[in-house]
Amino acid sequence: MEKYINSILKQSAEVDFIDEGVKSSVIEDINKRLTNLEKVFLGNNINSLKGTAFTDQEAKNCTLFMKGLFNKIFQERNYTKINQCWKDFIPLVEKFSQWNHFYTLRLKEVMLIDDPDPWTGDELNELCLGNKCPCPIYSALREWSGCNDFPTQQIICDKGSDLVDSIEIK
Q1: Same domain? 88 vs 103
Q2: What domain of life does the UniProt record list for this protein's source (predicted)?
Q3: Residue 19 DSSP class
Q4: d(CA 82, CA 74)
Q5: Could you give the CA distance from residue 107 to residue 117 in angstroms, rounded to a whole number?
Q6: What is the C-alpha to C-alpha distance for residues 139 and 154, in angstroms, rounded to an integer?
Q7: CA distances from residue 121 to 23, 52, 105, 130 in whole angstroms, order as listed
Q8: Residues 78/133, Cβ–Cβ less than 8 Å
Q9: Residues of the chain whose pLDDT is less than 70?
C-alpha cells in the first residue's frame, strides 16, 4: 500500500510549480504519516511481525503453542464443552481478510483433534501474506487470552508450547 501511495505522490509531485526541496520534504512528511498510520492500524502487533519465512519446525512449534494455549483457556475459563470454546474463539480469527473456509477447517483440526498434523511453514507463510502481516491466529489468541505480556511470533516460533504456562489468561 505504501509503495502504491508513494508512486501516486511522486507522480503528483512532479508538477512544475513545486521546487525540488519542497517535493522531497512533502514526500518525506507523508511517508512519516503513513508509517504512523501503519503503527496505529497494526497496534502492538507491529513488533510481532516475523521478519523471515516460517520453517516447518517453527510452524510445528506454533502449532503446539496455539493448541496448548487453546486448551489452557478452555480449562481456566471453565468451559464444559470444547465446541463452545471453539465458537467463542473462531470469530476472532475469521475477521481477517485473508482467512477462508479452508483455514477454519484446518485450524479446527489443529485445535480439536488429539494428534493433529502440525501447520506447515508454507501454510503459515501463505496465511501471513509473506510476512507482511501478523498471523491471524497469533492475533486472535493474543486478543482472546487478554494477556498484556504476550510473546512475539518469533519467540513462539522458537519456544513453542514451552511458553504456554507463562501466559496469564484474563
Answers
A1: yes
A2: Bacteria
A3: -
A4: 7
A5: 10
A6: 13
A7: 43, 11, 17, 11
A8: no
A9: 1-51, 131-132
**Same domain flag for 74 and 152:** yes
pLDDT at 167: 94
For residue 133, the model assigns a pLDDT of 73
Q: What angle do CA 85, 54, 48 make, to 5 degrees?
A: 65
| Structural domain count, the chain | 2
Q: Is 99 helix (H, G, I), strand (E, B) or coil?
A: coil
* Nine cell digits for residue 82: 470444547
Distance CA 95, CA 97 (A): 6
Question: 19 lies in which domain range?
Answer: 2-46
pTM: 0.70
For 141-167, write each residue's pLDDT tens digit. 999 999 989 999 999 999 999 999 999
Residue count of the chain: 170
Q: How far apart are CA 107 and CA 42, in angstroms?
A: 23
Residue 23 has a pLDDT of 63
Same domain flag for 140 and 87: yes
Check whether residue 88 and residue 107 sit in a common domain: yes
Question: What is the SS3 assignment for 152?
Answer: coil
CA pair distance 117, 110, nearest whole angstrom: 7
Taking the C-alpha atoms of residue 90 and residue 85, their distance in angstroms, rounded to an integer, is 9
